[in-house]
TrEMBL record:
This is FAD-dependent thymidylate synthase. It comes from the Bacteria. It comes from Paenibacillus profundus. GO terms for biological process: methylation. PROSITE patterns: THYX. PANTHER family: FLAVIN-DEPENDENT THYMIDYLATE SYNTHASE (PTHR34934). Keywords: Methyltransferase, Transferase. Residues 115-133 have a biased composition (Basic and acidic residues).
Length: 229
């Protein structure tokens, strides 16, 4: 299952382990009990666990997702791995030290550029005027085109890919591919923050794709763990 995001990106469900029933049985093992099917009482147990902050049972379920995202999204997402103190996350990313895969960039169209918000130091405001947006797109494309020429020249001269990549243009907009494996608790933490209305638009779109892929797998548990509608 794959959901397209932005102009070239996507999120793909690679694999998963467990279900809402896994959460229930992880909790009930304390009393040497096990459920065969999810019952109303099991649903109440999940509600209790989420409400009271008993989160370890949610860490017995995992999802593995593949992302293709601009670096500015990937680096925001990465914070949820290096800053995680409640679960073990795994992250593996394509490396241009070893490969010279095609370079693709996130390029907002003229009507997609956003203004600086009036009352905040971060985030975005209203859309920019179309003429300014058009020039911003053109300027970005010029940088990308020139940078690609320089990068390809470096490779043709035999410069090592790990150094030639310094010439790759538009670093924040360049797409990168990576796998993220995380527990349901970790996924819900990411979603609670990045589905919020004041998070960056681009990562909101990736968070929505994650939600759409994961929610059918853990409908009860995720519904209880999320604070963001």
């Amino acid at each position: 299952m794959k959901i397209n995001v932005l102009d070239r990106g996507y999120v793909r469900l690679v694999d998963h382990m467990g279900s809402d029933l896994s959460v229930v049985n992880s909790a009930r093992v304390s009393y040497a009990k096990q459920s065969k099917e999810l019952s109303p009482n099991d649903t109440k147990l999940i509600q209790f666990l989420a409400r009271e902050g008993h989160t370890s049972p949610f860490r017995h379920t995992t999802v593995q997702l593949e992302f293709y995202a601009p670096l500015m999204v990937a680096r925001q997402h990465w914070k949820y791995v290096v800053g995680s103190d409640h679960t073990m996350d795994a992250w593996n990313e394509a490396s241009r030290r070893y490969i010279t895969i095609d370079v693709e960039n996130y390029v907002p169209q003229p009507l997609q550029w956003r203004s600086k918000p009036e009352h905040s130091k971060q985030g975005s405001g209203e859309p920019m005027r179309e003429d300014i947006g058009r020039e911003a797109t053109e300027r970005l494309m010029r940088q990308i085109e020139q940078g690609m020429k320089d990068y390809e020249w470096a490779l043709e001269q035999g410069i090592a890919p790990e150094q030639a990549r310094l010439l790759i243009p538009s670093a924040y907009g360049m797409y990168t591919a990576y796998y993220w494996t995380a527990s349901l608790q970790s996924v819900s933490h990411f979603l609670n923050q990045r589905l919020a209305h004041d998070s960056q638009y681009e990562i909101q779109q990736y968070a929505q794709a994650v939600y759409d892929l994961v929610q059918p797998l853990f409908p009860v548990s995720l519904g209880q763990l999320l604070h963001t509608p």
